[in-house]
Specification:
This is Diketogulonate reductase-like aldo/keto reductase. The protein is α/β, with parallel strands linked by helices. 40% of the residues lie in helices and 14% in strands. Strand 4 (86-88), helix 3 and strand 5 form a beta-alpha-beta unit.
């Protein structure tokens, strides 16, 4: 995958520069003496979620072969060992729902994860049929979070989702998008509708959500999931060959991925960020962003200025 290749180059550059990125200890016992992954409350219930989850777009759209599924099975096993919970999927992501359902069932971990998926179609019955298929593929009688993907026919589907929530088929409901252009509409819906979650794009360089959307979600008590945290790998390409700032260690930042992710999760309106990966080393690195100290506002400003200067 293009963004993973760029990330590998960035990690290799850090290692060559003596930045001290430690990705070797993968056993669960290696994490026993580390700080637990930070958790945040879902405002509508108080249930807690780890601040780093897992996206599945592209990475989990694979066949049934062991060579394709083996690395993903390792990722899911390690994620559970380290305390990760939220896995985000969609019917749009090809075979991802089926693969997630199969592998978590094989690992006997299906019920230990927080499954978030989406409805991505037009029409009431079409939406019901698609969501029913998602439950079957993910091996669940109840989905933790069902979201309207990219606001497609959102008014129709939100009505159904409220019915499903009342019936106990879903625990939480929400809406999603991935572009800055969608933020105004997302904010309007956050303010006007009774939803539990909103998912959108946000990164250290793509900060349109800081204008008002993040605040609107916090004020309304809506949990926030962040997608596109690495801008599809563009952030890794931007820092290729560059060392982390010396002060990054003051916030337990050991890699560029953690630099980017800690900027996001240090905004207290954010509930969870969902970087995607099929590489267990990258998963460990990503989840590590939820451990240790977070940047304060002064440090966040320094991070923004550093990125603007490269």
């Amino acid at each position: 995958m293009k963004h993973n290749f760029s990330r590998r180059e960035a990690l290799a550059g850090l290692a060559a520069a003596g930045a001290g990125l430690a990705l070797s200890p993968f056993s669960s016992s290696a994490h026993n003496d580390l700080k637990m992954i930070l958790e945040r409350k879902i405002p509508s219930t108080g249930e807690r979620l780890p601040v780093v989850g897992l996206g599945s777009w592209q990475q989990f759209d694979v066949g049934a072969g062991a060579s394709e599924r083996g690395p993903l099975k390792e990722v899911l096993q390690k994620m559970q060992e380290m305390g990760g919970k939220l896995i985000d999927a969609s019917p749009m992501y090809g075979r991802a729902e089926q693969v997630i359902g199969d592998l978590t069932t094989d690992l006997k971990l299906n019920e230990q994860f927080f499954f978030a998926t989406k409805v991505w179609t037009t029409g009431k019955q079409e939406g019901i049929d698609q969501m029913t298929a998602s439950l079957r593929k993910m091996r669940r009688k109840k989905i933790d979070l069902m979201q309207v993907h990219n606001l497609q026919d959102w008014e129709t589907h939100l009505k159904t989702l409220r019915d499903w929530k009342t019936a106990g088929k879903v625990r939480y409901i929400g809406i999603t998008h991935y572009t800055d252009a969608s933020h105004t509409r997302l904010e309007q819906i956050v303010k006007s509708e009774n939803i539990d979650f909103v998912q959108f794009n946000y990164s250290i360089r793509s900060r349109n959500a800081e204008k008002s959307l993040l605040k609107a979600a916090k004020d309304k008590g809506v949990a926030v999931i962040i997608n596109e945290p690495f801008e599809q790998g563009a952030l890794f390409r931007a820092v290729k060959g560059k060392e982390l700032p010396a002060w990054a260690g003051d916030y337990d930042i050991k890699s560029w991925a953690q630099f980017f992710l800690k900027y996001i999760i240090s905004n207290d309106a954010v509930t969870c960020v969902i970087p995607g990966t099929s590489d267990v080393k990258h998963l460990v690195d990503n989840l590590g962003a939820g451990e240790g100290r977070l940047p304060d506002e002064t440090a966040r400003k320094k991070m923004r200025e550093w990125m603007a200067g490269i």
